[in-house]
């Protein structure tokens, strides 16, 4: 059975990470177009480098929550793909091996000229970049001579991994949405590609509106408790 998870900020809240959009989130303290847009990068790359250096130090001691670990464990029984809107690497830390990052990865730097070319990626921590190896020195260049920039999909940029995510959604027997408001596109459109025969589960403690034509089973719980509930439902499904 093929299970595809679509995870958002609510997946990582239980690990102690602040959401970007909710009350008290990062966008209340930092203008989004200054620190997370293509225009912002062109206007003031040093500001963006400094912002993500700060953000990485907040991520340094964060560990996966129980929900992350349960999803990774499901690989022992099912064909599992995780499509995440999150830029943390908590799914990988928990042991998930097939993760598609839609919005980039906090712990990678890339060429500002050839963003998606893995030849120029630098994975953090990097020796000599601050005490933790997470603070990229201002003005550091990639091997192609361009400025290193965070491997983040900025506003005003295309989502390069969306095509791969769509292919996975189309193959899903079970599609699970965790901790996302389904207001961020194009990620929210993935539900449109799920086959009508697939079972869709939505895990979130808050009400979420969907436009799905397929049957959606809502589990109104936080990520970890919701994933536990999901596992029980999957067991029942297999026993029928």
Structure description:
This protein is α/β, with parallel strands linked by helices and 240 residues long. It contains 8 helices and 9 strands. It has helices spanning 9-13, 32-35, 38-43, 45-59, 66-73, 90-94, 162-171, 223-239; strands at 2-7, 79-84, 99-101, 104-111, 122-123, 148-152, 174-178, 199-203, 216-219. It has a 6-stranded parallel β-sheet, sandwiched between helices. The mean pLDDT is 90.
How would the blueprint of this fold be written?
Layout: E1 2-7, H1 9-13, H2 32-35, H3 38-43, H4 45-59, H5 66-73, E2 79-84, H6 90-94, E3 99-101, E4 104-111, E5 122-123, E6 148-152, H7 162-171, E7 174-178, E8 199-203, E9 216-219, H8 223-239
Parallel strand pairs: 1-2, 1-7, 2-3, 7-8, 8-9
Antiparallel strand pairs: 4-5, 4-6
């Amino acid at each position: 059975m093929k299970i595809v998870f679509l995870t958002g900020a609510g997946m990582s809240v239980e690990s102690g990470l602040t959401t970007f959009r909710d009350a008290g989130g990062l966008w209340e303290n930092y203008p989004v177009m200054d620190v997370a847009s293509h225009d912002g990068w062109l206007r003031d790359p040093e500001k963006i480098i400094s912002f993500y250096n700060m953000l990485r130090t907040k991520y340094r001691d964060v560990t996966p929550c129980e929900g992350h670990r349960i999803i990774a464990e499901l690989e022992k029984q099912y064909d599992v793909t995780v499509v995440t809107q999150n830029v943390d690497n908590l799914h990988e830390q928990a042991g998930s091996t097939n993760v598609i990052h839609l919005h980039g990865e906090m712990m990678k730097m890339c060429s500002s000229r050839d963003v998606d070319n893995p030849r120029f990626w630098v994975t953090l921590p990097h020796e000599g970049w601050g005490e933790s190896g997470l603070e990229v020195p201002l003005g550091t260049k990639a091997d192609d001579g361009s400025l290193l920039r965070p491997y983040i999909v900025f506003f005003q940029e295309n989502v390069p991994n969306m095509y791969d995510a769509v292919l996975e959604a189309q193959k899903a027997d079970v599609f699970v949405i965790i901790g996302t408001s389904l207001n961020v596109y194009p990620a929210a459109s993935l539900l449109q590609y799920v086959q009508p025969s697939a079972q869709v589960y939505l895990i979130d403690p808050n009400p979420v509106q969907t436009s799905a034509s397929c049957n959606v089973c809502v589990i109104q719980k936080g990520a970890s408790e919701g994933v536990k509930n999901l596992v029980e439902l999957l067991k029942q499904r297999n026993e029928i």
